[in-house]
Amino acid sequence: MLYLIKNLTGVGCICLLLGMVCCKGVSNDVTLSEQEELRNHPKYNILFFLADDQRSRTIRHLGNHEVQTPFLDKLASNGVAFNNAYIMGAMSGAVCAPSRAMLMTGRSLFNIMDPSGETIDKAHVTLPKVLENAGYHTFHIGKWHNGREAFSESFSDGSKIFFGGMHDQYFVPTYEYNAQGDYSKEMLNPSSKEHSSKLYADAGIEFIENYNSKKPFFLNIAFQAPHDPRKMPQRYLDMYDPDSLTLPSNFQPQHPFDNGELDIRDEWLAGYPRTSQEIKANIASYYAMITHLDDQIGRVLTSLEKEGLMENTIVVFAGDNGLAVGQHGLMGKQNLYQHSINVPLIFMGPDIPKGKTVNSFSYLFDIFPTLLDLNGISLPPTVGGKSLKPVLMGEQLQVRESMFYAYKNFQRSVRKDQWKLIKYNVNGNVITQLFDLNVDPYETTNLADNDQYQSELYKMNNLLQEMITKNNDKVQLNEKNWGVPILPAWKDNVDADRLAYLKNLAKKERALRGF
């Protein structure tokens, strides 16, 4: 793989070459004065780490004292961490695909054209394309779940690219890519026993050590961890004794009602009813994968520092969605509880305050406008996210007053202040949950039927209708089945052979935990 010539900028400003702003893919609305501003504004390198299925509350520095994450702790202690960063949801069981499509386009769930996220419409200019047009060298490593054509439209270069949602962590089929748009398949040698997290970290280190250009870079490293199959070097699993781990306060043997998606691949990863023993074993393996991932992130950060690039680089860490792992009787992310939509989000870099934790509401797709704002790059008109820079810099407490979430056509939710409403419609059976997250952060006490909270319930129901309209959602709350075509059950979209294969994988995964 060929890389560009060594970065000579070190610490300080990077000026863009004349004419780079007007490349194909950026809005034609950029004026000459705006081009001049872009050329004269310092541009920082961007290193973006994206974890797969890592929920919020899985970083020691941010309050979870049972997980070991020394490098993410260091990142958080030297930057700004968001407690209330969320995905908007998904229209398919593969939640990570639309999550990543929203992130890369800066657009909300009902405005990404393909609601499954498996493809990205060419009308939506992506973050790496905007950065490339502003003078960046853009490079992707790891998981890309939004189609090969979208990748070619987005990145100028890449290595160890995995096109898919999940795979055995030690035998990931990856591709190399070049500026001519060619892919060269490289199936990993099974005898190498190289874990995907290390594979991607190695590629990131190679890129950093060999980078040799006056251009700033956007290095996007998208891991597959801690997504199952939860395999990692044994020494990481040995760090966690399942019996010593705390069972979450919202643990339940089974979900109390049909939420529309109880029979799906993710939910097969533990037996029914859930037992405390099996859930603790799953938490142990989940934390072990996060600690292994943390070590790989640390290796990349060490390389960045060694090459003298840390002071001129914005580092971002985020998760593409959360995961239940036993909470509410669930294992997966096909729901709108906090554990499945609340994700980690950390910014560290030049001029960004250190050791700050904020409660500002944010979506993952706000990362796009935030990075452009931090670098003085004009925002394309296709982007609907909001810049978090005012929050990062302490100029504002919030850029959003409320949040909206959706899963398929049978779950909708809104959040404002401490109040959260979730509404379900499964086969015409409507169930409402109202939670006060200030006193009940684990969503264990439903207040919807409590007379004392009917005023809040009324307000939140009105907010839900308002947000449905605002976000171009087709759901009609006053109609049976919400007036939208019923999306097929997950299993109806999977052929018999694939279904058997996935069930066998889930069986093997349980066997890894001893069940």
CATH architecture of the largest domain: 3-Layer(aba) Sandwich
In terms of quaternary structure, the protein is single chain
What does the average pLDDT come to? 89
Biggest β-sheet, characterized? Answer: 10 strands, mixed
Radius of gyration: 22 Å
Biggest sheet, spatial arrangement of strands: 8-7-6-5-9-1-10-12-2-13
> What level of helicity do the residues show?
25-40%
What is the overall shape? globular
How many domains, in number, for the residues?
A: 2
Query: Structural class per helix/strand content?
Result: alpha/beta
Q: CA-to-CA gap between the ends?
A: 43 Å
Beta percentage is 15-25%
Poorly predicted sequence stretches spanning 5 or more consecutive residues: 1-40
Task: Kindly report the name of the CATH homologous superfamily of the largest domain.
Answer: Alkaline Phosphatase, subunit A
Describe the structure.
This protein has two domains: 42-400, Alkaline Phosphatase, subunit A (3-Layer(aba) Sandwich); 406-484, Arylsulfatase, C-terminal domain. The protein has helices at 32-40, 70-77, 96-105, 127-133, 148-154, 196-210, 234-237, 276-306, 338-341, 367-374, 389-392, 454-470, 496-512; strands spanning 45-51, 80-82, 85-86, 89-90, 137-144, 157-163, 173-177, 183-187, 217-222, 313-319, 342-343, 345-348, 356-358, 362-363, 402-407, 411-416, 419-426, 429-436. With 515 residues, it is of the alpha/beta class. The strands form three sheets. A ten-stranded mixed sheet has the order 8-7-6-5-9-1-10-12-2-13, sandwiched between helices. It has a five-stranded mixed sheet with strand order 4-15-16-17-18. Strands 11-3-14 form a three-stranded mixed sheet. It is globular, with a radius of gyration of 22 Å. Residues 1-40 have low confidence and may be disordered. Helix content is 27%, strand content 18%. The two termini are 43 Å apart. Helix 6 packs parallel to helix 8 (276-306). The protein contains 13 helices and 18 strands.
